[in-house]
Write a structure and sequence with these properties.
Elements: H1 3-19, H2 34-37, H3 48-57, E1 69-75, E2 78-83, H4 97-117, E3 119-125, E4 134-142, H5 150-156, H6 171-178, E5 185-189, H7 193-210, H8 213-220, H9 227-233, H10 246-255, H11 264-279, E6 283-288, H12 294-314, E7 317-320, H13 323-326, H14 330-338, E8 344-351, E9 368-369
Length: 370
Amino acid sequence: MNRRDFFKYSIAVGSVFALSPMLTSCAGVHRKSFYENHGGFTMPDLPEKTTRILSYAALSPSGHNTQPWIVKIKSPSEIIIQSDKTRWLPEVDPTNRETFLSLSAFAETLCLASHAVGFDAEISIIAEDLKDSDIFQVKLNEMPTKNERYLGFIKNRVTTRTDFDKKEIKTEQINEVLNIEPEHIEYFPLESNGGKWIAENLPEAVKQQSFNNDKQEELSHWLRFSKSEAKERGDGITAEALGLNWFARFVWYNFYSQKSAMEDSFRNRGIDTAREQVENCSGFVVLTSKDNSLDSIFDSGRLYQKIGLKLTELGIAHHTMSQLLEEEPWSSEIKSNLKIDQPVQFVIRIGYGEDSKPSIRRPVRSFVVS
């Protein structure tokens, strides 16, 4: 859709809404309630507590909301976390680094949920390569429940893609974040040299990626322009997850398609949005790892989820923006420009602001195999 068509449809849509404010088509696509999405914790041949743990783990973050996990049940006390090849992103993530990070975040959420439900989760890396199918072995051992408050943070964590307030994050709150793992967490306020470099270069990385047809086409397959498809699949990026208002959601679901995502006007709007996002925040949290070994990437993925839950607890909105790590020359230059010695694994935009709607999720039954 070109800009002229967009405005033509916008005027028409605006007139329709003025006449019929109760149109059912303005209803949004939302994540089902925890109990609805997971069937009240009932799964054949799977203990209720295990199903409950997996229900929380399913709320973990992942790139493009691909949810690249499969859970293989070996026994009531042993599961294997597998990597779903049909959900990889070979264009923006050719090495599978980001997929492995997402699976590691899933493992961390599973571990926290296990503690709250009454199990210790012993997690071992069984993969030898980022592209292996079997990634983690998990053994569940009964123990007293602890840290049950994390269940609320897991359910409420959300990626917020709208603009944030520019005011500084409270020092005591930033310190709470940094103290989780000081050697692998850096904070760059927007007005710092590092913050300015990120804000200036991230839109350029988005621009380069957006005008790479293969990468944009890959993204388009995970944009949900159909409400029925979004509800059926339970994955990908919806208008609600993008934080669009009711009018923009109507246009999104009624006049956009995967083909629209390949048009210059759509790409340019995405670049403009990225520029607005980095100019409207408090700063950036950057996560690093000791090296690029499987163990270090695993630790970084787990740390990422810990950070997301801490920010949720503190009422700080956050949005992971990976383009600087996916595009050259920025991926090679980020360490020197931020004066960091270790590999950078995440760049997270943070600030005070209203949360978007949580991304949709697949039910447990869709990713569990025996």
